[in-house]
Amino acid sequence: MRKICIFDTTLRDGEQAPGCTMNPGEKLALAKQLERLGVDVIEAGFPVASPDDFAAVNEIAKIITGSAVAALCRAVAKDVETAAKALAPAKNPRLHVFIATSDLHLREKLGITREKALEMIAESVALACTLCRDVEFSAEDATRSDREFLLAALNTAIDAGAATVNVPDTVGYTTPEEMGDLIAWLKKNLHRKKDGAEVTLSVHCHNDLGMAVANSLAAIRAGASQVEGTINGIGERAGNVALEEVIMALDTRGPLYQAETGIDLKQIYRTCRLVSTVIGQKIPPNKPVVGRNAFNHEAGIHQHGVLKNPLTYEIMSPERIGIYDNDLVLGKHSGKHAFTQRVEELGYILPGELLEKAFARFLALADRKKTVTNKDIEAIVGAAGYSIPETYKLHSFVVNSGTVISATAVVKLIRDGEEIEHVARGDGPIDAAFKAIDRIVKVGFQLVNYSIHSVTEGEDAQGEVVVKLRQGNNTVTGRGLSTDIFEASLKAYLNAVNKIIAQ
Ligand code: KIV
Ligand code: ZN
């Protein structure tokens, strides 16, 4: 079986999409989970884009040892040097240099000739190779580029020292047949590295026409040995290819593709959940592989078949990707040892302080809820994993609402040990409570999204509220969990406010 490298760009191409911004703590938590998942490369950011991006790449480079850490840079010296500096602490750094190769992009976006582009590729890749032992080159908009020129651009990069060349379908325009044909042709015509070895041929598919997974798989069949994408397929417009879908297609149809990945499949579900939690976007119920309905069998005839033999209607088992059933696992009298053991069985490793926090949340929940399930525990652990300084803490609240009175809320918060209380009226009790918080914190922002869903079934299910607040160009996501939806809402709002203050 051929080994397919999985290059994850959730933290760069994914994070770049509107509404998917992550704070530094969230990026670190996600990078650690991607390492646990076993991806070969984590693209941590675009260091020249902002000091925050630089810092995030630098922090990730310090803590990740099991995957290579990549940083993106345009084909210009300043970008390459900045990215190399950000990657300095990495055990396995990769510089990822790119420039567009389609005539449309060269003319309209960059205003340069093909010859100039080749010159820039040769210079920037050569410079990158003096600063880093592992260099990848990407030809942006490759699938709309003239084939011969694309080949010339990739060969220029290889001659300058690139070990991986990447073919992005930047605007999700190509089809599986075209992609397979292009990759097979490139494979035949690409130069070899100076030592005579083959380069790694990579693809990077966007999903504008819903063909990103099919295009990536077609490329693999034609000889590509690296796939770039994001968890849950997040990314600009219709997103990038969903890596979990490519990985499970290769696993489920191994004999067809004759290819495998080094991914720890049992980490797939929790990685997808973590991304969904961090960016505050629910996984659609019918999403392949990890959607809530992916393993639900409603139709009687299907249920009958699955009970007799799951293979009748299930081509992969939920356990294979780390989804376990919803049995009661712990209760009010479970001690810290039992909780820690369960957290570890679920595949999470929480350092001391975060474990304490998660245990405190578990005890509070077990006090209110009859049955604490694995899903509850995963929600608690997810919330603990990327905490930020809690400038304001919720002390208490009272909401008053009805059809014949205007909604009012009294909210008391604590800041530096001091209790601060405010009352406000609003268009409904949640709006009133949010306005009371606004009066206390006095920070300008706008509420752009509010959503609520239940973590499990039943009357005492935990509600998970996600809010998005915008301040200027910056959007932050706040999340709150409680069996009381008002409390969950206030916690989510405060979580987002605290993130804005922390920035
Ligand atoms: O879609 C794209 O072309 C990219 C490149 C920068 C790799 O994200
Ligand atoms: Zn992209």
What would the keywords be for this entry?
binds 3-methyl-2-oxobutanoic acid, 42% helix, three-stranded antiparallel beta sheet, alpha/beta, globular, single chain, binds zinc ion
Structural class: alpha/beta
Give a count of the beta strands, DSSP E runs of length 2 or more.
18
Largest sheet: 8 strands, parallel, barrel
Average pLDDT taken over every residue: 92
Give the overall form. Answer: globular
In the predicted model, the low-confidence regions spanning at least 5 consecutive residues are none
Sheet-strand content, in percent, reads 15-25%
Write down the Rg. 25 Å
Helix content: 40-55%
Distance between the termini: 47 Å
Please give the count of helices.
18
The small molecules bound here are:
3-methyl-2-oxobutanoic acid, zinc ion
Give your account of this protein's structure.
The chain has 503 residues and is α/β, with parallel strands linked by helices. The strands form 5 sheets. It has an 8-stranded parallel barrel, surrounded by 7 helices. Strands 13-14-15 form a 3-stranded antiparallel beta sheet. Helix 3 crosses helix 4, helix 4 packs parallel to helix 6 and helix 15 crosses helix 16. The mean pLDDT is 92. It binds 3-methyl-2-oxobutanoic acid and zinc ion.
